[in-house]
Structures are given as C-alpha cells and as structure tokens.
Specification:
Layout (H helix, E strand, L loop, with lengths): L10 H8 L7 H15 L7 E5 L5 H9 L4 E5 L3 H4 L4 H6 L2 E2 L9 E7 L7 H13 L1 E12 L4 H9 L11 H6 L5 E9 L24 E8 L2
Parallel strand pairs: 1-2, 1-4, 2-3, 4-5
Antiparallel strand pairs: 5-7, 6-7
Helix pairs in contact: 2-3
Length: about 220
C-alpha cells in the first residue's frame, strides 16, 4: 500500500478517470459511503470516527460534513497521502501514517476499499487491529469492490494503482469478523450509473442483490 505515495498528488483525478463509465467522480462515491453510514448506523452526538486507510481524506471530509459534531481521525500507510489531507480536517482531528498516533474507543471505524490491496495473510490482522480501536458497541464498517460485478472487475483491471489488487468476495470479508467482533449485516451497494440516476432511490431495497458494484460489511465490537 505504500505505493500510494506515488499517486497521492493526483489520486482523485485518477479515480475519477477510472470510473468514467459510471458518469460520476471519486467525490460521488465518497459521499455515497458517508450517506450509507448515516442511513445504517445511529451515531451519538460528539462521536469519534476513524477512517482506516484515509488516503488524501476524501471520505473523511464527507464523514465530517455528514456528522458535523463528530471528531474524524484518519490513518494511512502513505505519508504522502496523509500530508494532502485538508487543513480543516487536520484542525479537528488526528491524521497520521503512524497508528500509535491514533486513539481508541471510536464509535465507528471505516475501512473503505483498502482490503483488496492487503496481502491475503495480513487481512485478518488488519481487521482485528481496526476492530480493537472501537469502543464496546462501536461499529466496524468495511467497504469493498464486489468481484461478482463485471464492470467492477474491469475498472479494477484498468486502474493504475490497482495492479496489486486481489478482490474479496463478500463471504471472505465477512469471514474476518471474529474474536470480539460480531457480524451485523452485509449490504450490496452502488447499482446504477449516472444516466440511470432516477433508479438510485431504489438502491436501499436492493441491498440483498449480489450485483452491486460494491458491498458493505458491518460488525459490532463486543466486550
């Protein structure tokens, strides 16, 4: 994942170019995820959120706008990416490429499109590490590309920073929920491109359909 240093300067533009077929930008997908979390998780006022694999802070920014009273922190192994997180976000939270600079007892920890860059033998440890940052009753939210979707596989194959990517079936991701993490739900998300935007209002009702471009797995931290 450290190779993201080389694309930090134009990461958003590269993602937008890669998903041109959807008619949307990288910002749309970040906003979509923040809205999904708001829809599926009741978050207390003044909560703490950790964006685990925050990159340049695109999702973190939308999380802060969606939950304005929350403290949003971020971790990423790419120090070049972290340095590009906006000043507004850095003022209200901690963003670092060193995990020991981050806290614990988070209400939500988000791992968004990170796992497919992680070596198979390291994936379980990453999930357990992220989960250990949660407060009891806190939620771990993992977003990943859905390998069942052919357009998703095509987009990943064309992406310059996805050369190392090995996509995870939803069942694999769910299988990493163990120990003091309890599986809560799995939703498939992102079904319609921009030119079919009118149908997007139906997406919450399609969450059980395994054809979404991505999926979300949500777990709870147990005592």
């Amino acid at each position: 994942m450290a190779s993201f240093d080389s694309v930090a300067a134009n990461y958003e533009q590269l993602v937008t170019k890669n998903v041109w077929i959807t008619g949307e930008s990288s910002d749309y997908f970040a906003a979509y995820k923040a809205a999904y979390i708001a829809r599926r998780i009741n978050l207390r006022r003044g909560a703490k959120i950790m964006d685990y694999g925050c990159g340049v802070g695109l999702l973190s920014g939308h999380l802060k706008r969606t939950f304005p009273s929350a403290q949003v922190d971020g971790f990423d192994v790419s120090s070049e990416s972290v340095e590009r997180v906006s000043e507004e976000l850095v003022k209200q939270g901690t963003f670092s490429s060193a995990l020991n600079h981050l806290g614990h007892a988070y209400d939500i920890v988000v791992i968004s499109n990170v796992m497919h860059h992680v070596k198979l033998e390291d994936r379980q440890d990453l999930v357990l590490e992220a989960g250990s940052r949660l407060a009891v009753g806190g939620r771990l939210v993992i977003f990943e590309h859905n390998p069942i979707n052919p357009l998703t596989r095509w987009a990943v194959s064309e992406c310059p920073f996805d050369e190392d990517a090995v996509l995870l079936p939803a069942g694999e991701t769910q299988g990493y929920i163990k120990g003091n993490l309890r599986f809560l739900l799995r939703d498939y998300i992102v079904f319609f491109p921009r030119w079919l935007a009118w149908f997007r209002r139906t997406e919450p009702f399609l969450r059980g359909c395994p054809l979404g471009a991505q999926y979300a797995v949500v777990a709870e931290r147990l005592p």
